[in-house]
Amino acid sequence: MRRFFIVLIRFYQYTFAALLGGQCRFHPTCSEYAVEAFERLPMWRAFYLTLWRILRCQPFAKSGYDPVPKE
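^ Putative membrane protein insertion efficiency factor, sequence as received from the core. Prediction below:
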């Protein structure tokens, strides 16, 4: 199941994200953050952190370096 979500994110990166250009406010990008979260963390935690990251990806939030927690 974890692999399915990673493949889905990679598909997004190579199709839609490529068309939109590099506009992510964070480093690593939100999609790279999601892949790393799904590779390293339990699925429920990866879903939560990815959703929280996407909700913060807007003009009024802080931007910059925001790594996946080590937990």
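Residues 38 and 47 are 8 Å apart (CA to CA).
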